[in-house]
Amino acid sequence: MLTLHPKLLRLFLSLLGLFLACFIAIGSIGIPGIQSNEILWDTWGVPHIFAQDRESLARGFGWAQMQNHGNLILRLYGTARGRAAEYWGKNYLDGDKLVRIMGFADSAPEWYQKQSPAFRRYLDAFVAGMNDYVKQNPDKIADELKVVLPISATDVLAYIQLGFFSFIAQTGGCGQIANLERLAGMGSNGWAIARSHSTTKHAMLLANPHLAWSGGQTWFEAQLKSPEIDAYGATLVGFPVLGIAFNDYLGWTHTNNTIDGCDLYKLSLADGGYRFDGQVREFETSRQTIKIRQEDGTFKEELLLVRRSIHGPVVEKDGSAIAIRIVGVDRFPAYGIIEQLWNTAKAKNLTEFQAALQRHQLPFFNVIYGDRDGHIMYLFNGYVPVRNQGDFNYWQGIVPGDTSETLWQKIHPFSELPKVIDPPGGWVQNCNDPPWSSTFPQKLDPKDFPPYIAPQFMSLRAQRSVRMLQENASISFDKLIEDKYSTRLELSDRILDDLIAAARQYGSPLGRQAANVLEKWDRFADADSRGTLLFQLWVEEIKSQRGDLSGMFATPWDESNPLTTPKSLAAPRAAAVALEAAATKLQTAYGALDVPWGNVMRLMRGKVDLPANGGADELGIFRVLEFEPIPNGGFRAVFGDTYIAAIEFSHPIKGKILNTYGNATQPGSPNIGDQLELAARKELRFVWRKRQEIVAHLESRQVFSSLGM
């Protein structure tokens, strides 16, 4: 009997598996290339969904999302129904009240009816795939979450409304209600590089959203391929289409923009109603009962009075009645957002892409675009209310609600939004800064637009972004990825020399020791950087003294010098005192002043625990990560870099990607945290889009009919 050496046996089995996988793949190839409906799962847990028609593709996408994120999705959909307290207890009560007041679940049936017949079928197929997964895998879903089943298309639409409310509210005055202030850090980086600024003479795109590493801000990566479409990208879990994507011809990304599409109005109450233009108007009212699950399994009921004024839904804040007016959800509902995103993903050139955008159904987000024809574009996209007074800052507060003078009734048409196509500088960028700094030399002038359309500022992160783009006459694909992972602190370059001098002049021996550490520091937030932790603690001390960092500069930000201000320390002695306080805390906590950044800041997910690189946006770092404390005295990343895509529009297209925390959250999945090692090494992974590539890295294959899995 022939006996193979174990290593040879493993090699033989590996080659046999690859041969069989290739045989399966070849057997599936037809004209136009898809003879069956299937999901090919690669080793990173990414589903490549091949389907013969749109509805089968949607069904497979729903199945795949449920397989990787089923528990999370059910909790999110249950929350969007406004019944989370009924399902899971009192901790969800405030969220339920907000959902009921805003009426997301109530308006979802209307949204469903407003879909085109084709996309009603698409939504129905998407949720059918989710429900099919649970029916066939009931043991994979937590028992407490099955109460949400079955999922309906209206659940998806209510969830989309809640999601966009959360995004839109965080840049407008609405962030002051329902604890939405905590979302104010949501952000992103986005670059598009023209041929003239590329070493290979191919346009390039960088997608780099910064969101929370949990909940509804979790990204899900997938490929969707049918005779109609072949798109690769990511979507927020529970969304039925890709939100950031590319195909063989073009790609796009989004960043949070500075649109104020959600305003608060203070109402003047009178005689059971409210005053408006000298008259008393009655509220539109309804009463709803919220069930609250108790720890013993019984239910308590609470009556909720829902009121609406001419402005919109009404909430109580600090003893006042405040009305909410929001675009895209309550006003000018974005019924067609799903179909628009689908059409952008199947576009093949700039003309088709713009035609999809011009439907104007995406109420928020900048668009950064590139294609293989060499075109690049920045668009300040979204719903901007037409206002007859005030600048951007005026509308950030609570405005008077007793007069029609403040009540906007229209939004600016798509044609009036700030946009730049193929600028002479050879690139466009956005780091959540206003549109004016999308390219240099600047092509958009604030004076050409209403004063309320966007503020005037440029964050240190945005300045760092532009600095890297300007440092080289042209950028290679590898340099694009290197810059994406840059942890250089722009803030340190503005004030560090002043801080060191102040500590040596005014500081104690400990303060002078801290100055020595900062002088040797590399000014990066890499894992082995010594001095970053001290500098971060000093920044926190300054914030505790002043409330924010703006007052610490001798020269504030100046729109005439947007890339070199703010700079210098306004109060050197106070800065030295703050540095000594930071050094004392650091010495007490860790026994040294030059503790490596990665010793304390960690990348953690599942069983993975690695030293982190990257830091807070306020430090002017392009590689954004923010951390929360953990019991051992360290910190773990909970926000920042999530899905990252670097795309070169060559022939064939070249792409590298990372879904930083992994492509799954379901308990027991091997893909929880499996990409953190690459993040720790500042690397991305190659995109697998062609069937042969996918099969070479195949984890599993699922075949399903057009009627079910």
Notable traits:
709 residues; alpha+beta; ten-stranded mixed beta sheet
Question: What report would you give on this structure?
Answer:
The model is unreliable at 1-32 and 180-184 (pLDDT under 50). It is built from 18 helices and 31 strands. The strands form six sheets. A ten-stranded mixed beta sheet has the order 20-18-17-8-7-6-5-2-1-31. Strands 3, 4, 21, 24, 25, 26, 27, 28, 29 and 30 form a ten-stranded mixed beta sheet that branches. Strands 15-16-9-19 form a four-stranded mixed beta sheet. Helix 8 runs antiparallel to helix 9. The protein is an alpha+beta fold. A hairpin with a 5-residue loop joins strand 26 (625-629) and strand 27 (635-641). It is 32% helix and 23% strand.
Helical segment tally?
A: 18
Whole-Å distance between the termini? 43 Å
* General form: globular
Let me know the largest β-sheet.
10 strands, mixed
Averaged pLDDT: 93
Q: Give the number of DSSP strands.
A: 31
What class would the helix/strand composition place it in? alpha+beta
Low-confidence stretches: 1-32, 180-184
Quaternary state of the chains: single chain
Strand content: 15-25%
Radius of gyration: 26 Å
Percent range of helical residues: 25-40%
Spatial order of the strands forming the largest sheet: 20-18-17-8-7-6-5-2-1-31
